[in-house]
Amino acid sequence: MACEAVSPQTILSGARLGLDDTFPFRCGPDLDCFGRCCRDVNIVLTPYDVLRLKRATELDSSEFLEKHTLCPRGEEQKFPMVLLKMDGEDKRCGFVSEKGCGVYNDRPWACRMYPLGAAEPKTPTPVDQPFHFVLQEDLCHGHGRSRPVTVRDWVSSQGAEAYEMMSGGFKELTLHDFWDGDKPLTEAQAAMFYMACYDLDSFRRFVFETRLLQLVEVDEARVEALRTDDQELLEFGIQWLRFSIFGEGTMKLRKGAAPRRAVA
Ligand code: SF4
Ligand code: SF4
């Protein structure tokens, strides 16, 4: 159900699976390891994971992030990342109970995919393509407990496709050439990145309570969608970050508007 951060060595030394490759695995409440994978793990949340979880918990995004996540900042880290918070002495996920996952329908991508992980080269070539790999951990007793299942069927059976589709824009953002440079984000840029990607209710207030919409061109139908549609807002936020931080043409200034620096 959950996925721990994996070292590049582990990924590169294991078998690379394509969508039609198989692995024998079954998970269920009858296994003696049930729920063990929801303790003491590092689960990185994507913006879409946060969106789904804050909706499932009926919390404002700021409240959700405060209550259920951590945002560690390391010197090597180029942009803000969000981890699911583990609670108590045994460091268990706040959503797990004896019955299993309390947010099962909205559980994060990493939880859906486990024991599969996914890796993607920054610039895929015919010989260096995205691939999946199996995480073999002693705590998990589901390996070899069923007939082999294809990666494709696993992804589909776990409802992970929508998550992958919704995370395309964020993936492009995090794989951008900008991060190869030696210019770190300013504090203000890092705060904007965090808000536009994860704290969507605050970002909505930023969109509607600053001069942003007077400065960039956004058609009326989209403005209306941004008021209520979190997915549209997330896509808009990623375009905004690419415009205001990377200097890309993902948005257009209105005629006579001040340069992007005046807003970001
Ligand atoms: S979100 Fe659900 S599946 Fe993921 S670690 Fe928490 S309880 Fe387990
Ligand atoms: S089989 Fe693996 S994924 Fe399923 S509950 Fe056990 S440890 Fe978690």
Could you please describe the fold and organization of this structure?
With 264 residues, the chain is of the alpha+beta class. 37% of the residues lie in helices and 13% in strands. It has twelve helices and eleven strands. The chain has helices spanning 8-13, 47-56, 61-68, 109-113, 151-157, 161-166, 168-174, 187-197, 200-209, 212-215, 220-228, 230-244; strands spanning 22-25, 44-45, 69-70, 82-84, 86-87, 92-93, 96-97, 100-101, 116-119, 131-134, 143-150. Strand 5 and strand 6 (92-93) form a beta hairpin. The longest helix is centred in the last third of the chain and has 15 residues, at 230-244. It is globular, with a radius of gyration of 20 Å. 26% of the residues are buried. Bound molecules: iron/sulfur cluster (SF4) (2 copies). One iron/sulfur cluster (SF4) binds at residues 1-2, 38, 43, 93, 95-96, 101, 103, 107-108, 111.
Walk me through the topology:
Blueprint: H1 8-13, E1 22-25, E2 44-45, H2 47-56, H3 61-68, E3 69-70, E4 82-84, E5 86-87, E6 92-93, E7 96-97, E8 100-101, H4 109-113, E9 116-119, E10 131-134, E11 143-150, H5 151-157, H6 161-166, H7 168-174, H8 187-197, H9 200-209, H10 212-215, H11 220-228, H12 230-244
Antiparallel strand pairs: 1-11, 2-4, 3-4, 5-6, 7-8, 9-10
Helix pairs in contact: 8-9, 8-12, 9-12, 11-12
Bound molecules: iron/sulfur cluster (2 copies).
One iron/sulfur cluster binds at residues 1, 27, 31, 33-37, 114, 139-142.
